[in-house]
Amino acid sequence: MKKAIIYYFSGTGNTWWLSKELKKQLNLNNWEVDYFSIECIQTIDILTQIKDVHHIIFGFPVYGSTAPRPMLNFIHNFPKANHSQSISVFATQALASGDTAYFVGKQLIQKGYCLNQTMHFRMMNNLHLPKFRFYPPKNDDRVISLHHKNLPKIKKLALYITQNEKVLHGKYSLGIIIGAFQRSHIDKLIHTAGKRFTVDTSRCINCDQCIKICPTKNIVGSNNTYDFKKNCVFCLRCYSQCPTHAILIGEHSKDVEKFPRYKGPQDGFDVNFLIKK
User: Cβ distance 125 to 135 under 8 Å?
Assistant: First the structure.
């Protein structure tokens, strides 16, 4: 039986869901598959995990036509290939992704891996803010509708992997142009947006969930409230999952009717899925 492993980073759950579904499809094709949040593993563990696998898969959300900083760091530290292992890269997006998966995949080619598949999947948006009025996230059957639309594409990706078929989306000129433009701005945008986090102390119940779930340990408790440091990657996990909507990104985000928060890809979603070992 062939083996694959999926490494993913998921801010608010979409990439976790897609990784889970891809695992199911590969299992149906008689592949043995493990999947791991990159927040829950150490580099030393990876050497053992990938030793005998035939195929490695990387998944993440699109942030300005690149991967989130935690995934970029993970790939930077990922071991070099010691034989001709094949890989896939997939990315989840709200709307446009450019050449994201292929752009990130090229970094793994430089480590000796054979990039066989790159693919993008449109999922529910999680970003709708006073300073960035993208379409509002929905926490209803429209999430399920997007899932149903993605399932045939997930099945295709699983089939491409099992048949060792090379399919590289985003490799061509238009995707590269869109991607290069978005990447030229994303770091500055994230740095600026990260400064806008505050806590509404009248709502806050000091549950410390934001500290627990932050992937970069950017949030610290201070005098019965919380401070945000300079390591924010703008994954929106704390903002989306605050049980009392006390975390704000701009004063107007208090209005949860006008600025709803994405609660995850399925009923009963638990943010701890993203951080548990």
Answer: yes
What's the pTM? 0.93
Q: What type of residue is 189?
A: L
Separation between Cα atoms, residue 229 and residue 238, nearest integer Å: 14
Strand 3-8 with 55-61, pairing: parallel
- Domain chopping of the chain, boundaries: 3-183
Of 276, 277, 274, the C-alpha closest to 9 is: 274
Any bridge partners for residue 8, and if so which?
37, 59
DSSP 265: S
Hey, is 117 helix, strand or coil? strand
3-183 CATH pick, 3.40.190.10, 3.40.50.360, 2.20.25.90, 3.40.50.2000? 3.40.50.360
Q: What is the pLDDT along the chain (277 residues), one digit of tens a residue?
A: 899 999 999 999 999 999 999 999 999 999 999 999 999 988 888 999 998 899 999 999 998 668 999 999 999 999 999 888 999 999 998 876 678 899 899 999 999 999 999 999 999 988 888 777 777 788 888 899 999 999 999 999 999 999 999 999 877 656 566 656 566 566 777 777 788 999 999 999 999 999 999 999 999 998 889 999 999 999 999 999 999 999 999 999 999 999 999 999 987 789 998 987 5
Question: Which SS3 state, helix, strand or coil, does residue 249 take?
Answer: strand
Secondary structure class of 94 (helix, strand, coil): coil
